[in-house]
Amino acid sequence: MLTTLQTSYTDTRAGDLAWQLGGEPLPALAVRDLRLDDACGAPDGLRGTLQLRLLGASHQVVLAAGPGDCLETVACLPGRRTPLPARVAERVAGWEYEFAARIEELPPHVFEARAQELLALVEGHPRALAGVFPGDPSAFTALVAHCEDRRVHWRTWHAYPQEGRLVCTRSSLSLPVAVRPETTRPAGGARAAADRGAPAQVGW
Fold first, then answer.
1. Are the C-beta atoms of 58 and 86 separated by less than 8 Å?
2. Counted domains in the chain
3. Given 5, 17, 28, 49, which residue has the most CB atoms within 10 angstroms?
4. For residue 200, is pLDDT > 50?
5. Is the dihedral of CA 157, 71, 98, 173 positive or negative?
6. Alpha-carbon distance 73 to 92, whole Å?
7. CA torsion 141→124→99→48, rounded to 10°?
8. pLDDT digit string, tens, across residues 71-95
């Protein structure tokens, strides 16, 4: 799913992005709701939803399935100036969560080609969402999700053509071996994944 975001493009930078796990959903410019079921490779008993959200300042992903809920934000967050971590690994709401980020610096012609390639991929993907900012077809945020066995994972791209920088992230939530997919989720929604402060970090 590809959409043009109804907002003005602000001069943000790749270095302004911050990561957060937990918190609340922020106002979104576009949303795509996906169901975890047999069609996406989810195992029997692991049922729920995965919501992809495009913000004016990047993205959120909200999972409501399995042992508990999880909310990930990568955005320009007021009051947070910590650079994106290279990698995070921690336990959240009964899931094993992993996050990794890197920044590609590309010359203009390569950047434009890479942007169009990614947007073409997302446009025809059954579990994807991308938004292009008005005024520059290479300024966009895109998300693609997958589900397999006991794992839900997604990749995102945040394009900054004025810098020639593409921020790439990948995230996953895996069920520990000891957790059966049919485990009942506790009540409490996305609040269950409270922000846990400084995460454990390991190499890329």
1. no
2. 1
3. 17
4. no
5. negative
6. 14
7. 110
8. 999 998 777 666 789 999 999 988 9
Residue 196 lies in a domain: no
**Domain-located, residue 185:** no
Residue type, 173: L
Single pTM value for the model? 0.80
Q: What is the pLDDT of residues 31-78, one digit of tens each?
A: 999 988 755 556 555 678 999 999 887 899 999 987 889 999 999 877
In a domain, 22, yes or no: yes
The position carrying tokens 């996406």 is: 40
- CA angle (154 as vertex; 149, 160 as ends), nearest 5: 170
Distant-in-sequence, close-in-space partners of 105: CB < 8 Å, separation ≥ 6: 163, 164, 165
Q: Which domain holds residue 7?
A: 2-180
What span, in angstroms and rounded, lies between the C-alpha atoms of 117 and 67?
Answer: 36
What is the spatial distance between Cα 158 and Cα 169, in angstroms, rounded to a whole number? 9
* In a domain? residue 201: no
**The token pair that represents 102 in the structure block:** 């890197």
Q: Which residues contact 4 (CB under 8 A, 6 or more apart)?
A: 131, 132, 134
Cα 63 to its chain centre, rounded Å, is 10
| Backbone angles phi and psi of 16, in degrees to 5 | -85, -15
